Amino acid sequence: MALSNSISNIFGVSPVKPLQNHMSAAIQCVDLLDAFLRATFEGNWDEATAVFEQISTEEQSADDLKKQFRMHMPKSLFMPVSRGDLLSIITQQDNIANLTKDISGIILGRKMAIPDKLHNDFIGFAESSAETCRAAHSAINELDELLETGFAGSEVKFVKKLIRDLAAQEQKVDKKEQKLRKKLFNIEADLSPIDVIFMYNIIDQIGGLADTAELIGNQVELLLAK
Amino acid sequence: MEFFTEYGPTLIVIAALVGFFMAWGVGANDVANAMGTSVGSKALTLKQAILIAMVFEFAGAYLAGGEVTSTIRKGIVDSAIFVERPNDLVFGMLSALLAAGTWLMIASFMGWPVSTTHSIVGAIVGFAAIGVSVDAVNWSKVSTIVASWVVSPVMAGTLSFLLFRSVQRLILLQDDPFTKAKRYIPIYMFFVGFLIAMVTLLKGLKHVFKDNGMSLSFLESAGIASLVGIVVAIIGSYLLSRVKRDLSLETDNRFANVERVFAVLMIFTACAMAFAHGSNDVANAVGPLAAVVSIVNSGGDIAAKSVMPSWILLLGGGGIVVGLATYGFKVMGTIGRKITELTPSRGFAAELGAAATVVIASGTGLPISTTHTLVGAVLGVGLARGIGALNLRMVGSIFLSWLVTLPAGAGLCIIFFYIFKASFGQ
User: Fold this and answer.
1) Do B253 and A144 touch (CB under 8 A)?
2) What is the pLDDT of residues B61-109, one digit of tens each?
3) How confident is the model at residue A1 (pLDDT cuts 50, 70, 90)?
């Protein structure tokens, strides 16, 4: 007798674990950004290339995880959270990986030398932005606990607090971004205009990491809404 | 009637063989559906589940299976029509067994999720309505049965929904769910014990009491059942006290230890599920066999009040055990591996909701599908936002399958009916 004649067929694969795995892969990219920037500041382009390769690999694996996730999301699934919300969360998570790869890719491609005066602010700004992404990661990591409680009670309060912290962190990143832009503005006349344009571009994208993380937080908050 | 003196033993042997085959099929496939949730949520190992299934399926069939068996045996057809033609009833019941068995084989081979209950009821209605006459079917009873197929998943779903909500309210949403779980879970254990004892006392042991000149009022039964429930809860509390909190498990999921507590509860609901399944589904194999045996033994007198020989129930229970031992463990293992997303706190709610529904249906003599009831129960937990993902398309095909099973079972049964008639020269 065939085995498909069974109750097990009504259970789909829970979206929580795959979503968390994808987020972990995206965070791996972000975690490498610091090492990459430091290598470029020292002018060690071999090291920077090696780190960029790692970022690329992680970005690729995040891409694969995203594809698999989508493949397992047929419309006929009945889930405690909306399919649309989950799909937009994974898109945002994927953006984190993509942005990180773009940032490092542009810096590496142009062998961009960030002026020494800006190094500290730049690292601080990037680290702060990465921290926002990690805060989004912790919110995503709470999804299995949320599922366990059926999206109710003190667990919801806990996750809401995580999301508030995430928003506060994003505000800090905004402040640092303003400061960095101002410093760059003060010295931009001495630099090559094309380099400066790309520097602003990079700053924009690093800030974009934090914005994306905040978007993920907002999406998780939507999951909590009854 | 000389027909029965001539062919009686042959007919009984055929019926017993086919009945045993049906029971084997129930044990091989159906029990796995009923118990797979326990294995999947890792509350029980495969061996423990098989052991529980063997003991409680048998107990359920023997202690609480009588009502459903008698419905299958004589509730669906109108006996009055067959008084003049008992041969047709015997051929019909034989064909029904054979048709249901064949249909289950085909369906399982093709991977269609069909129900034993629906096959056998469809088959009996088929031969009676078309092979004999439309009036030969007790239509009011049949419509009650069909209605119960709609009501039972809904009821199980509602019960599971409420059970899971109560678990949320009392345990999962509290500040210290581990301690709360240990405090409140014995209450659910009490319900399990109470439920099984109550059905056994009210329905299963009725005949035993009658023979001994004893009788229990509803309140007396409730009292005894409560005592049983309390004993079960005490045993459960002892088992719970042995579950110690292991903080190393909580790094990944803070509810890991709470689930270990629920796993203990699931041992009890698994027993209830096996009992409920035995009380309802064994009748599918045993009911037609019992009808054949009683007609043959009374020499064609349908009206004769005959006690069902105990070997028939033993054969049914035995068939299930053999089915489990030869094939069921494989199926159960596969199902268990596939439903890992169901944690004990969910699995228990689904099982208890389904078991309660099935046991109540068994008590009222309604043959329902355990698998469909369990599907309803799982959906109930899902509606309480408790399950990661449910495949609604599959749920649809399960419920569609029973619409197909009725005419299929009926059609096959009619064919076999005429073959039997022809080969016995009628």
Assistant:
1) yes
2) 888 888 888 888 888 887 777 777 778 888 888 899 989 888 888 877 7
3) very low
* Cα A195 to Cα B352: distance, rounded to the nearest angstrom: 68
Supply B148's token pair. 């119960």
Residues of A with CB under 8 A from a CB of B: 1-16, 74, 76-81, 144-145, 147-155
Q: Do A78 and B254 touch (CB under 8 A)?
A: no
- B341 within 8 A of A11, measured Cβ to Cβ: yes
**Torsion from C-alpha of A174, A178, A183, A185, nearest 10 degrees:** 130
Which of B137, B188, B117 has its CA nearest to residue B353?
A: B188
Structure tokens at B248: 């190393």
Nearest CB neighbour to A10, from listed B109, B384, B391: B391
H or E element in which residue B217 lies: none
Provide, as residue numbers in chain A, all residues whose Cβ is less than 8 Å from the Cβ of B174: 153-154
* pLDDT band (50, 70, 90) for residue A3: very low
Burial class (CB in 10 A: 0-12, 13-18, 19+), A175: exposed
Residue B50 has pLDDT above 70, yes or no: yes
pTM of the model: 0.88
Supply the Cα-derived Rg of chain B in whole angstroms: 22
- Examine the pLDDT at B305 and tell me if it is beyond 70: no
Residue B325, class by beta-carbon neighbours within 10 Å (0-12 exposed, 13-18 middle, 19+ buried)?
middle
Contacts of A81 in chain B (CB under 8 A): 385
Q: How far is A83 from chain B (nearest CA, A)?
A: 10
Question: To which H or E segment does residue B107 belong?
Answer: helix B86-110
Q: Are A65 and A27 in contact (CB under 8 A)?
A: no
Taking the C-alpha atoms of residue A29 and residue A213, their distance in angstroms, rounded to an integer, is 14
The alpha carbon torsion through B225, B166, B158, B263 (nearest 10 deg) reads -70
| Residue A134: both structure tokens together | 């990690």
State the angle between helix axes of B329-338 and B46-64 in degrees (0 to 180), rounded to the nearest 10: 120
pLDDT at residue A98 greater than cutoff 90: yes
Q: Hey, which residues 154-183 in chain B have their CB within 8 Å of chain A?
A: 164, 168, 172-175
Looking at chain A, the whole-number percentage of residues with pLDDT higher than 70 is 97
What region, left, alpha or beta, does residue B328 occupy, with left being phi > 0 and alpha being psi -120 to 50 degrees? alpha
State the Cα–Cα distance between residues B227 and B236, nearest whole angstrom.
Answer: 14
Which one of A146-155, A159-168, B14-23, B192-201 scores highest in mean pLDDT? A159-168
Q: Helix, strand, or coil here: B390?
A: strand
pLDDT in tens, A36-65: 999 999 999 999 999 999 999 999 999 999
**Which pairs count as long-range contacts for A29-33, CB under 8 Å and 24+ apart, including other chains?**
A29/A55, A29/A58, A29/A59, A29/A62, A29/A96, A29/A97, A29/A100, A29/A101, A30/A96, A30/A100, A30/A130, A30/A133, A30/A134, A30/A209, A31/A130, A32/A58, A32/A100, A32/A104, A33/A100, A33/A103, A33/A104, A33/A126, A33/A130
- Euclidean distance between CA atoms B407 and B125, whole angstroms: 10
Name every chain A residue with its beta carbon within 8 A of the beta carbon of B341: 11-14
The whole-angstrom separation of Cα B324 and Cα B347 is 21
Q: DSSP letter at B307?
A: P
How is residue B59 written in tokens?
């107990």
Q: How confident is the model at residue B208 (pLDDT cuts 50, 70, 90)?
A: low
CA distance B375 to A82: 22
Q: Is the pLDDT of residue B304 over 90?
A: no
Q: How far apart are CA A34 and CA A49, in angstroms?
A: 14
CA distance B301 to B304: 6
pLDDT of residue A170: 94
